[in-house]
Design a protein that fits this description.
Strand order of the largest sheet: 1-2
Number of helices: 24
Order of helices and strands: HEHHHEHHHHHEHHHEHHHHHEHHHEHHHH
Largest sheet: 2 strands, parallel
Shape: elongated
Distance between the termini: 55 Å
Oligomer: single chain
Helix content: 55-70%
Radius of gyration: 25 Å
Number of strands: 6
Length: 465
């Protein structure tokens, strides 16, 4: 077990930001000076609040450190940067501080206490004292702040992920969490109060070491070029934003769900940067995909390069590899039904029902998916609700049949297809789904407040195809 396994997500974010500061200064190490800047930049943890209460300002501290240490001669990549011996000692002290305080995880407060314990000869200590702040005053303020908080047993059981994001991020590995932290940092840089696909793309590039960063580098995507494109398309916000003000955009939430789905379909236990980039490519409609396509990079090419780096031959989104065709279905409808079959297989069901059809629609990227997303339906929530109604099977079934209800829905979908009844699409499948209120798929939507009328109205607003 490594020392970082006990770090909560805020503490891991501090290390990511400290590394970013080292890159900013062209240094090939993370020193105590970078660590103190990372603690301030994190913005919401106990350490950041303590330093803010003592009047420590990031810009002033940066200027002081620049004057004391200076900048390196050449830019450094993340892979060149190592922890200095002093920072390794700070980390050991931080783990010990958490143990002595009876805390199960190492947080930003323990890192700050560890930095204080490392003591007199650190650059961080000298920079702080030049600003009139002593290590002793920091320790007193941290302990006083911790004494005013609830004891650890009253805290939530799961630490927030990547700057305050919780839930599905528990499955993200450290590289993916670092991407989210860097994406949030990009949003702050642009004074945006949300993390959009564009910030996610910048975070994937900046992470530097994962499969996604290497794939984007292979495709010729440059951070400065991408930032320039974001600035041109969206521009800067009007006022600075704090981390607590920043939320995920609906498209970014969708990418997170698609990333989780990509990991599941590839049989991977954790979500990494490669799954995030595959999710971004599958979403295909956000500013990030527009930026990549403006550089001559298609989403199909992104997927191809990622799969190649993973040692997998397929370049299209996997659909179980089946060649089954569903009658007079259009290309989009056939893919929805293949994805529905994939969901049924993953849930160990021996039938494909309306519940699987809903999940297939959510996994697609056509208009039907955008309608459901705009109405607040998420793949993760829908999948969980389906399993509450129809629990996973025992496995071992040798056949897969289409339920009579789903067969009837396909008949409805054919009838909705411009009245011709010969070719049906993903949109007409959605229309058929909500037209059968007794089906599991419609019941799941109803539980989320999505009625047939809302779906029909949303479909009517779509531009003609």
């Amino acid at each position: 077990m490594g020392p970082f396994d006990r770090f909560n997500d805020r503490a891991k974010r501090v290390l990511a930001l400290a590394q970013d500061e080292a890159i900013r200064f062209n240094h090939n190490y993370i020193g105590t000076e970078h660590l103190i800047m990372g603690l301030i930049r994190e913005g919401e943890g106990t350490a950041a609040r303590v330093l803010d209460s003592l009047g420590v300002d990031l810009s002033s501290l940066r200027r002081t450190i620049d004057a004391m240490v200076g900048r390196g001669d050449a830019t450094k990549s993340p892979s060149e940067i190592t922890l200095s011996p002093q920072v390794k000692s700070v980390i050991n002290f931080a783990v010990d501080e958490a143990r002595k305080l009876g805390h199960s995880h190492v947080g930003t407060e323990h890192l700050l206490l560890g930095l204080v314990r490392e003591g007199d000869e650190t650059t961080a200590k000298k920079a702080l004292e030049s600003l009139g702040v002593t290590l002793e005053s920091i320790r007193h303020r941290v302990i006083a702040t911790l004494g005013q908080q609830h004891p650890p047993t009253a805290a939530p059981s799961a630490a927030p992920s990547a700057g305050g994001f919780a839930g599905p991020f528990d499955r993200f590995n450290d590289g993916a969490k670092r991407v989210l932290a860097l994406a949030q940092d990009e949003a702050i840089r642009f004074k945006h109060n949300y993390i959009g696909t564009e910030h996610l793309l910048l975070g994937l590039i900046r992470e530097g070491q994962g499969v996604a960063a290497r794939a984007l580098q292979k495709l010729g995507v440059d951070l400065a070029q991408a930032r320039t494109a974001v600035s041109f398309i969206i521009g800067q916000g009007d006022a600075p934003t704090a981390p607590s003000e920043i939320t995920l955009s609906p498209r970014t939430k969708k990418i997170v769900e698609l990333a989780i789905d990509e990991a599941r379909r590839l049989g991977h236990r954790h979500v990494g940067t490669e799954h995030m980039l595959l999710g971004l490519a599958r979403e295909g409609e956000g500013i990030a995909s527009g930026i990549l396509e403006s550089l001559g990079i298609t989403m199909a090419k992104v997927r191809e390069v990622v799969m190649e780096m993973l040692g997998l031959p397929e370049s299209a989104p996997p659909t179980r590899g089946t060649s089954r065709q569903y009658g007079a279905a259009s290309q989009s409808a056939n893919q929805v039904l293949l994805l529905a079959e994939d969901e049924a297989t993953a849930m160990r069901h021996n039938h494909i029902g309306t519940e699987h059809l809903l999940l297939g629609l959510l996994r697609m990227e056509p208009a039907s998916n955008r309608v459901l997303t705009d109405l607040g339906v998420t793949l993760e929530r829908a999948r969980a609700d389906v399993l509450k109604i129809v629990p996973a099977g025992p496995g071992g079934s040798s056949g897969m049949t289409m339920s009579p209800r789903l067969q009837a829905l396909i008949g409805y979908a054919k009838g909705f297809a411009d009245g011709a009844g010969t070719s049906y699409s993903a949109e007409t499948l959605l229309l058929a789904l909500v037209s059968d209120p007794a089906g599991v798929g419609a019941k799941v939507l109803e539980a989320m407040g999505v009625t047939a009328q809302k779906v029909r109205e949303a479909l009517e607003q779509l531009p003609p195809r």
